[in-house]
Structure formats: structure tokens, C-alpha cells
Design a protein that fits this description.
There is one protein chain. The chain is α+β, with helices and mostly antiparallel strands and 363 residues long. The protein has helices at 19-27, 68-72, 95-108, 116-129, 205-220, 267-278, 290-299, 336-349, and strands at 9-10, 38-45, 49-57, 75-77, 80-84, 90-93, 141-150, 162-172, 183-187, 225-229, 237-240, 244-249, 254-256, 283-285, 302-309, 313-321, 326-328, 360-362. Strands 1, 2, 3, 4, 5, 6, 7, 8 and 18 form a 9-stranded mixed beta sheet that branches. Strands 9, 10, 11, 12, 13, 14, 15, 16 and 17 form a 9-stranded mixed beta sheet that branches. α6 (267-278) packs across α8 (336-349). The longest helix has 16 residues, at 205-220. It is globular, with a radius of gyration of 21 Å. 44% of the residues are buried. The mean pLDDT is 96. Bound molecules: pyridoxal-5'-phosphate and 2-OXO-4-methylpentanoic acid. 2-OXO-4-methylpentanoic acid binds next to loops. It catalyses: L-isoleucine + 2-oxoglutarate = (S)-3-methyl-2-oxopentanoate + L-glutamate; L-leucine + 2-oxoglutarate = 4-methyl-2-oxopentanoate + L-glutamate; L-valine + 2-oxoglutarate = 3-methyl-2-oxobutanoate + L-glutamate. It is an enzyme of class 2 (transferase). The modification N6-(pyridoxal phosphate)lysine is found at residue 203. Keywords: Amino-acid biosynthesis, Aminotransferase, Branched-chain amino acid biosynthesis, Pyridoxal phosphate, Transferase. Pfam families: Aminotran_4.
């Protein structure tokens, strides 16, 4: 809960969406297309530090065309969800982990590092204020998108002396159209996402821009998502454009690529490692090669693969294609272990199972 130390200036949205219209929108929100009535904004300047904490109507940000973010992509963001609980209350899931990652992203991009309690309190404040926007339909939640931009007006290539932090919220259902069917991945050989020493472990907008040509190629090839390989050997499986990846073997063990600096340290990934071990499964954080993946899929040693992330939750992978690869995993459908891990995770998030690891932040 709140320590009550932070007070936000509040400006209520005079044009808030009427309740009946809101309820209709919440029935079928899709992903990232519907937004709540308010947003949080906080400013930073070198001279005054963090200031001007506001809850205000969601509206356009007015920015000078020479603002640093437009030219040098000085932007970081987070993704987290608020869940409706069976008793009608609401909760965030591990917001402290998002706050820590946000600081790490800021550090990598030479941006101001927001204190973790200020980050968490901003998210709590927005959800409390717009709590009527948390859907209560099965599997739906309120997705929070906190982000920060370099807002100094300057064209010189230098760190920004001013920043704007903003958090918006969007009621969401499934990230994928058509829900739960297994994904077909495109193994990108032309493009990589992140190189050693680069920004792969930071959640910065530039990483996502850099992955879009590969995603377009994947879509042209009839695939749903891209799986990126390491930039040096083009051999090791790293992650998807917006999800981490897990493999499930015939001995019941799980494997996921290690955090070597070129992939995002996913909070879902970390949670699933813990829940897998809770179930008595062996979980390895070890590199997995593309050729080995195909070999293991063909021999049946590999039983399942799945992607995971806040937006996607747990998404089974059915097929993999590429210039040099084409194979099916298991029978091409959702696997058993993926289903059990997804249930274990979402049962905690939605308050249907005990919160053994103290991951919930009740509002
Ligand atoms: N990898 C990338 C590139 C992502 O954008 C995301 C989504 O946030 C993830 C992995 C999964 O991270 P998390 O589980 O913290 O949402
Ligand atoms: C998330 O899962 O929160 C992400 O940021 C991934 C994005 C592609 C929606």
C-alpha cells in the first residue's frame, strides 16, 4: 500500500468517458487501443530535481520540434498490469521490479534515474484514480505504460538536462488476435536486435524501432513474431521482439537464455523460473542454439516452447521458420507445461491462488 508521502496535484477530466460507454469499451478492449481518462506526469530538471507531480486529463503533450526525444530517441518505458481481484479490489504485480528496471534503463541511456518509490507511487496513483477502468472479464486487465523522454530543447548530441515522466493506462484483453493458438515464429537471419555492449537489456523505444523491419519480414513470410538470434554468431536464440522465450524438454526440464546483456530481463521470465522450480521442475538459464532447437524438435527431445511477457502472458510456440530452418514443436499446439505455468502465474495475479512470493501490491 501507499506510504502516503507523495501528493499529486489532481485535475479531473471534465470530459471523462460516461460510465455506460466505458463499460461497453471494457467488454472488448483489444490491446492498446482504449485508454483511461487520466495520466500521471512528473517533470525533472537538473536544477530542481523531480517536481510537478500531477494526475491530469489524458491529453496531447505539447513539445518543441527540437526536443531531444524526437532526434536521438531518448525514451524508455515500462509495461505492467493492474488486475481485478475476486473481492472487487485491485492489485499490481511486482511493480518494484518494473521500478528497478526503469532505473537501469535510464542509467544505460544516460537519463535521470527516477527513485523507485516515486515510480511505484505514480503507478498506484493512476490505477486508484482510474480504477473503474480495470476490466473484470476473464483474463483482462489494465495495462500501465509508464515512460520517460528527454525533453530538453537542443540539437547538440548530449544527455538531456530535462525529462518528462508520464504514465498512461489502457484496458486490455489478449495481446494476440484470436487468443490462445500457438505462434509461428520467423527466425531472423538478416536482422539482429541487440549486440554486446548495446542497449538490448534496456527497455528503450529504440530497441523496438530496430526490430520492426524484422517483424515486417516475418509477417510477409506468414509468421506471427520474430525470434532474434545473437548478433555475433547468429546462432544462439535470444528472445522475441517483445517477449522472452522458454523451452521444455522430455525430461520435464525448462531452459531459457541467460541474461548476458543483450536480452530484456523479463519480470514474467523471472516469475516463471520461480514458479517452475516451485513445481519441482529443473530450470536452466543457458544458451540454446538454433540448430540444436531444430534437432531437438525433430527428435522429440524438445516437447514445448513458449514466449512470455507482461502483454503476451504465456504464448505457446507451434512452428519455427527461417531461411535455413523449418520445424514444428510437438504437435504444433499449446503444450501442457506452458498451460500449467500460465495458470500458476495468472492464478496469483488475479488473486485466485495464495501469493506465496509476496508479488502482489494491493491497492
Ligand atoms: N523482452 C522484450 C524485448 C520485451 O519488450 C518484453 C516485454 O516487456 C519482455 C521481454 C518481457 O518482459 P516482462 O515479462 O517484464 O514484461
Ligand atoms: C510488454 O509486454 O509490456 C511489452 O512492453 C511488450 C510490447 C511489445 C507490448
Amino acid at each position: 500500500g501507499s506510504n502516503g508521502a507523495l501528493t499529486f496535484d489532481v485535475e479531473k477530466n471534465p470530459n471523462a468517458v460516461p460510465a455506460t460507454e466505458r463499460e461497453a469499451l471494457l467488454q472488448n478492449p483489444g490491446f492498446g487501443k482504449v485508454f483511461t481518462d487520466h495520466m500521471v506526469t512528473i517533470r525533472y530538471s537538473e536544477n530542481t530535481g523531480w517536481h510537478g507531480w500531477k494526475i491530469e486529463p489524458r491529453r496531447p503533450l505539447a513539445l518543441d520540434p527540437a526536443t531531444l526525444v524526437f532526434h536521438y530517441a531518448l525514451e524508455i518505458f515500462e509495461g505492467m498490469k493492474a488486475y481485478r481481484l475476486p473481492d472487487g479490489g485491485a492489485t499490481l504485480f511486482r511493480p518494484d521490479a518494473n521500478a528497478r528496471r526503469f532505473r537501469n534503463s535510464a542509467e544505460r541511456l544516460g537519463m535521470a534515474q527516477m527513485p523507485e518509490d516515486l515510480f511505484v507511487e505514480s503507478c498506484r496513483a493512476l490505477v486508484r484514480f482510474d480504477r473503474d477502468w480495470i476490466p473484470s472479464s476473464e483474463g483482462a486487465s489494465l495495462y500501465l505504460r509508464p515512460f520517460m523522454i528527454g525533453s530538453e530543447v537542443a540539437l547538440g548530441m548530449k544527455p538531456s538536462s530535462e525529462f518528462i515522466f508520464c504514465a498512461i493506462a489502457s484496458p486490455v484483453a489478449s495481446y494476440f488476435k484470436g487468443g490462445a493458438s500457438a505462434l509461428t515464429l520467423w527466425a531472423s537471419e538478416n536482422f539482429t536486435r541487440a549486440a554486446p555492449g548495446g542497449t538490448g537489456a534496456a527497455k528503450c523505444g529504440g530497441n523496438y524501432a530496430a526490430s520492426l523491419a524484422a517483424q515486417a519480414e516475418g509477417l510477409r513470410e506468414g509468421c506471427d513474431q520474430v525470434v532474434f538470434l545473437d548478433a555475433v554468431e547468429r546462432r544462439w536464440v535470444e528472445e522475441l521482439g517483445g517477449m522472452n522465450i522458454f523451452f521444455v524438454f522430455d525430461d520435464g526440464s525448462l531452459q531459457t537464455p541467460p541474461l548476458t546483456g543483450t536480452i530484456l530481463p523479463g519480470i514474467t521470465r523471472d516469475s516463471l523460473i520461480t514458479l517452475g522450480r516451485d513445481m519441482g521442475l529443473t530450470v536452466r538459464e543457458e544458451p540454446y542454439g538454433m540448430d540444436q532447437w531444430q534437432k531437438d524438435a525433430e527428435s522429440g527431445r524438445l516437447r514445448e516452447a513458449f514466449a512470455c511477457g507482461t502483454a503476451a502472458v504465456v504464448a505457446p510456440i507451434g512452428k519455427v521458420k527461417g531461411r535455413q530452418h523449418s520445424f514444428t514443436i510437438g504437435d504444433g499446439n499449446a503444450g501442457l507445461i506452458a498451460g500449467r505455468l500460465k495458470a500458476a502465474l495468472t492464478d496469483i495475479q488475479f488473486g485466485r491462488a495464495p501469493d506465496q512470493h509476496s508479488w502482489l501490491d494491493r491497492l
